[in-house]
Amino acid sequence: MAGYGYRNYRGRTPKWKIFLAIVLVLVILSSLLFLGLQRYLVYDETGTPHFLLPQSSESAQAEHTPPPAGLTIEEDSQPEAPTISFLAPAPVLTAEDAQSLLTAMGSTCTGAVLTLKDDSGRVYFPTAANDAVEAGDETAQAIAAVLEGSQHAAARIACFADPKAANSDVEGQGLKNTGGYIFYDGNNHQWLDPGKEAARTYLCSLAAQCAQLGFDEIILTSVSYPTEGKLDKIAYGETPLDENFAVFLRQMRETLEPYHVKLTVEMTSAGILSGVEPGGLTLATAAKYADAITAPVETGAEADSLAEAVTSFLPQFRQLPDHYTGDAILIPE
Q: Out of 30, 32, 75, 278, which residue is the most buried by the measure of CB atoms under 10 Å away?
């Protein structure tokens, strides 16, 4: 009996050996699993490791693997080249004007910018708007020739600096002084009132007619209250100035929506750098409703400083240089 008991004891495996064997098996299996998954281990830009499963490795690789330094990933492999446009120095009213403009553009400019309404209130295309129209009999054909000869054509429209429309409808559109009469600025000019619906509707109608002619872009200038003269005598009304411009630009955007044209707002360098124009328009409002913001500049360094100022206010903006000769164009992403 004693011998039987001894043999039974000798055949029993100690518990610590069983535990050690289990641990070793787990270590071996973990090592094999780790080695097998090594090919699916990637690191993101912060150094954090990620395991990518085989079925999602292609999509996840693009997400977690940073591009090489200095490489910009574009949605389109062939991004569209900037449009170099030529600003016509005078209205195009005749066939000779159109030919002169196209000749001056030459091969370096692929786009044309025509002023179809200026700060005097004169309108330079056929329309039944009012007696401010200065277009001749050939004007429609001349504009059509420029449109046909340009890859991109923009119409410049001066907005609230408009003595003709202001005087023709003082009550409905004109900007008044605190005495109830038409306001005269420091240059003895009259303005439309951005707070009046009739004034906004008139400008939107002109822009729509320009779009109907076939222009690709509408550039709005003089989106402003007067900045010279006895400004304290202006009857501004109770609505904040920038709110009137927000209403106007929203209405303009809605008016142009069916024509699929680009809407650009011109600002001054001072207005862009400070974030608000002396005439009341803020950079934020212009950016909210416009496809682009433009400002006349004299040097490339000035254009760069304006682009930096815009991105400090509105990080979603990028600069498109040389869109117009002598202008800086700032475009929302």
A: 278
